[in-house]
Amino acid sequence: MDGQKRVLGLSFGKKLSNCELLVKEALLKCQEQGMEIQFIRVDDLNIHPCTGCTGCVVQLASCRGSGRCIHSAKDDFPVLEEAVFAADAVIVACPAFVLGPTGHFKTVVDRFGPSHDITFAIPAIEVGQKEGRDPSTYPDVRILKKRVAALISVGGAQTENWLSQNLPGMYGFVEPMGMDVVDKYEYFAAMDWDSCLGRPEVMERMGVLGQNIVDALNAGTEEERTRYRSERLGVCPVCHEKQVTITGKGNIVECPICGIEGTLDVVDGEIVVTFSEEQQKRSRLKEAGKWEHSNEIRNGAMNQKKVPNLAELKKKYIGVGEN
Fold first, then answer.
1. Does residue 194 contact residue 282 with C-beta atoms inside 8 Å?
2. Where do the NADPH-dependent FMN reductase-like domain residues begin and end (predicted)?
3. For the range 293-300, what are the long-range contacts, defined as Cβ-Cβ under 8 Å and sequence gap of 24 or more?
């Protein structure tokens, strides 16, 4: 249907496991409200780990390529990429493995990473279009589409802090293309039932999550579209997570997800963390923060100091400890 919004659901869990069921319950609400839906069980896809070759970054920083990964011609990453490009909203669920997201989730994040960062893509697209080049020679313009997202964390442990790095780590998926997280939910103590289907209140919450996605997509203003709708409130007003890093600079702390500084004070026995409007605007979840980082990489890559006789110096380490 022309003009119909598409919601993509991604599960990094097992078939018909908690992650999949939670995502699909939210998708059903979206479909009920007139949205087109798509679901992918990501662990069914063969996605090669990033090898750190920097080929994608070099292409984009020089505005002379699409940023396409060399592995995309021989694995299933393009299937996932196309689904994300076609989507207006993405709902992602991932189980917590050893405090944080699964290894396959991180593999996917690494493959999206700089190659889909909007601040790398914008100049490359502008130069490609200005020169009248074939669209296949610069990034897909759909990278720049405004999308909303919802994150779902799942863990069996009855103690919530055993999931402490999961939701923070899941922001790595939404960060490159600047997806606005409008809802998130943490389902812990999942081991109490053999399925989340035994927890009607949790399934009802997924209906609310789906409705929140619908409301964001139907919003009439940018402010309403990006409005955060979850009851999960942390210390950071941008990512709404609970964590801060002690910087060692007086009472200055940092949000490890957003990379922004705030001040920590104790008021009437309560910890209060304050982030200025200026700092909030430079969160790495915002475009300004992304420009800081991409310019950092451009400047570093273009002005690297060369080590004299590097090949000769490396000889000392060839074969050390290898059998």
1. no
2. 15-186
3. 293/119, 294/114, 294/117, 294/119, 294/120, 295/119, 297/57, 297/61, 297/114, 298/61
Q: What are phi and psi of 319, to 5 degrees?
A: 80, 0
Give the CATH number of domain 6-232: 3.40.50.360
For 105-147, what is each residue's pLDDT tens digit? 999 999 998 899 999 999 999 999 999 999 999 999 999 999 9
Laid out side by side, the sheet with 89-95 consists of 36-41, 6-11, 89-95, 148-154, 180-187
Each domain of the chain, given as residue ranges in start order, spans: 6-232, 234-318
**Residue 94 main-chain phi, psi, to 5 deg:** -145, 135
Q: pLDDT by residue (tens digit) across 268-312?
A: 999 999 999 999 999 999 999 999 988 888 887 667 889 999 999
Which helix (DSSP H) or strand (DSSP E) does residue 300 occupy? helix 287-302
Residue that the structure tokens 């609400």 belong to: 29
Nearest-5° angle of CA 103, CA 106, CA 108?
A: 115
Cα gap 280→275, rounded to integer Å:
7
Bridge partners, residue 186, by sequence = 153
* Residue 167 to residue 58: CA distance in whole angstroms: 30
| Res 264 pLDDT > 90 | yes
| 319 contacts: CB under 8 Å, gap ≥ 6 | none
The first and second tokens of residue 66, run together, are 């699409």
Contacts of 167 (CB under 8 A, 6+ apart): 151, 153, 184, 186, 241
Residue in the structure block whose two tokens are 């109490």: 192
